[in-house]
Design brief:
7 helices; single chain; Lambda Exonuclease, Chain A; four-stranded mixed β-sheet; three-stranded mixed β-sheet; 14% strand
């Protein structure tokens, strides 16, 4: 099983710590081992991830319009001796991965460079898997689906003490607008960051996977 360990590109950030694996990497590996050994999956749910899944087709359409080309969701799973992953968009020379922001405050309106290093590691993994030399993160700002807005406002209701007098229909309507963005021009609701292939970083990922395998071996021996 140790030899089988490969890191999913979206999880590379969990094992790339400044000093070794760190607690984050070790905990990730322990959970990976338990899920494999006992055929279980760690249950989790995030409104942010759920939104990303639900609005992904709209994000692809927004990116298509931005680039002026027809794009389709990639459904090919890539794998090598160290990595696995499924990029959102695979083009002849480029890769695009779409990230749907939760709010105007998590959308990088003013950033000049990719604000999340975790995503750069993810793209390095995708480039290693596909042989591409250029990849992009496309942030999009799309209306949150109504069921998710209702879940978020319900959570806020209970977090604020659940006092009905504080949650009038007007309050609910006003707060709901925080999760809708069609009043903002479309051109301002998509932002693309380019990342170039870095073979030294890819080698670091591969080396760290080998460290992960040794750590797993030490845990189960």
């Amino acid at each position: 099983m140790v030899k089988e360990f490969k890191i999913g590109c979206a999880s590379i950030c969990k094992i790339i710590q400044p000093k070794g694996l760190g607690k984050t990497g070790e905990n990730y590996l322990k959970e990976w081992y338990l899920s494999k050994k006992y055929n279980r999956k760690k249950e989790w749910f995030s409104l942010y991830v759920e939104k990303g899944l639900r609005v992904e087709p709209f994000g692809i359409k927004m990116l298509s319009d931005k680039l002026g080309v027809g794009l389709e969701k990639n459904d090919e799973w890539f794998e090598n001796d160290f990595l696995t992953g499924i990029p959102d968009i695979v083009m002849p020379d480029d890769i695009y991965d779409i990230k749907s922001s939760w709010s105007i405050f998590t959308f990088p309106f003013l950033d000049k460079e990719l604000p999340n290093d975790d995503y750069e590691w993810q793209l390095q993994g995708y480039m290693a898997l596909t042989g591409r030399n250029t990849a992009h993160i496309a942030y999009t700002l799309i209306d949150t689906p109504q069921p998710l807005i209702e879940q978020e406002l319900k959570k806020l209701y209970y977090q604020t003490g659940g006092r009905a007098e504080d949650w009038t229909p007007e309050t609910y309507a006003d707060l709901s607008e925080n999760y809708k963005f069609n009043d903002i021009p479309v051109k301002d609701r998509i932002k693309i960051f380019e990342v170039k292939r870095d073979d030294e970083k890819i080698k670091k990922i591969y080396d760290r996977v080998l460290v992960c395998r040794e750590y797993l071996k030490s845990c189960i021996s």
